[in-house]
Amino acid sequence: MPYERDNIHRLTPYTPGEQPQRADVVKLNTNENPYPPPSAVLEAIRGVSADQLRRYPPPRAQQFREAAARLHGLSPEQVIATNGGDELLRMAVTVFCEPGGLGLGETYPTYSLYDVLAEIHGTTITQVPLEEDWSVPEEFASRLNDRGCRLALLVNPHAPSGRREPLDKLERIARTFRGVVLIDEAYVDFAEADAIPLLDPARGLDNVLLLRTLSKGYSLAGLRFGYGLGHPRLIETLDKARDSYNTDILAQAAATAALSARDEASKSWERVIAERARLTAALRERGFTVAPSQTNFILATPPAGGLSAQAMYRALHDRAIFVRYWDAPRLHDKLRITVGTPEQNDALLGAIAEVSRAAAGA
């Protein structure tokens, strides 16, 4: 006899990318930064004392909030620290969506965790398909309004395509939508611009939340630290649903140090952006269709007449080259490839040439 709620009994959990333990794998499947975090991060972790470990951490990570506020030109009251960006998503669904109601609106495709969080909460999901060029339809906000949605989740730059929506379009969505718009900026460190201007009080928007993570740009995916930015009233409301001591002392020290070392971290962003351009060009030369990206990954469609995306994914996997594949509408013929180091990307390109030759000679 199941003891869980019916919606949990029916739930299909989130499936994370494979995390191999083998050292020989070229890991291009979960969008980690291939370069190490700033040196100040490791120094900060080493600087945590035994007495700090003995005590509970500052519950709201005040030092980090102040550092993030300085970085973004905001007040600490506009910042909330979270256990990874995913915790902010969970908090937003909990706080703004009604169980059993038409609470969550999103595009399709998008980050698949959104659906899992909504299903856990018992909230109905409204999906609006993206245009052929992966852009958000102009009627996105009005369609969510028609369905009574309370929260709109938009990942920008988009995952898994890499497209970035311009600021004026995001502003139109926020002004039209009658609920909270959470813009997931997990990949913004690799983009040309961010949505911070939407938080300027002069714009008069009190329904915008921005999600940031240190997993990508700051090379801290193993640490689990993110944060939210928004109107003080939204932050105060989210704080009510925050787990007690949700970020530990090691994470707080490392995250604060990471923001202070932004200049060092940004050098890795520049390297990723340069490799993104090189990898995109190389794949296009080999007949792939590659969507323009402002992230640390690319979405690539193998050339017609050769191996299917699924077959190429499996062949690469057999050669210890890990990329991401989904058997899902609009994605089943594509591979999402994390931008690695030059050596990793060359290994990928060599493996693609090898499996393509093998398939052609079969």
Structural notes for this entry:
The structure is a single chain. This protein has 362 residues and is of the alpha/beta class. The protein has two domains: 6-30 and 263-361, Aspartate Aminotransferase, domain 1; 39-261, 3-Layer(aba) Sandwich (Aspartate Aminotransferase, domain 2). The chain is 39% helix and 14% strand. The chain has helices at residues 6-10, 39-46, 50-54, 62-72, 85-96, 113-121, 140-146, 167-176, 232-239, 249-260, 262-285, 309-318, 342-361, and strands at 26-27, 79-82, 104-108, 125-129, 151-155, 180-184, 208-213, 226-230, 289-290, 297-301, 321-322, 335-338. The strands form three sheets. Strands 2-8-7-6-5-3-4 form a seven-stranded mixed β-sheet, with helices on both faces. The chain has a three-stranded antiparallel β-sheet with strand order 9-10-12. Strand 9 (289-290) and strand 10 form a beta hairpin. The mean pLDDT is 97.
In CATH, what is the homologous superfamily of the largest domain?
Answer: Type I PLP-dependent aspartate aminotransferase-like (Major domain)
| CATH-derived architecture of the largest domain | 3-Layer(aba) Sandwich
What number of domains? 2
Strand content: 5-15%
The helix-strand sequence is HEHHHEHEHEHEHEEEHHHEEHEEH
Determine the CATH topology of the largest domain. Aspartate Aminotransferase, domain 2
Mean pLDDT: 97
Keywords: Amino-acid biosynthesis, Aminotransferase, Histidine biosynthesis, Pyridoxal phosphate, Transferase
Catalytic activity: L-histidinol phosphate + 2-oxoglutarate = 3-(imidazol-4-yl)-2-oxopropyl phosphate + L-glutamate
Domain Aminotransferase class I/classII large: 24-352
Subunit structure: Homodimer.
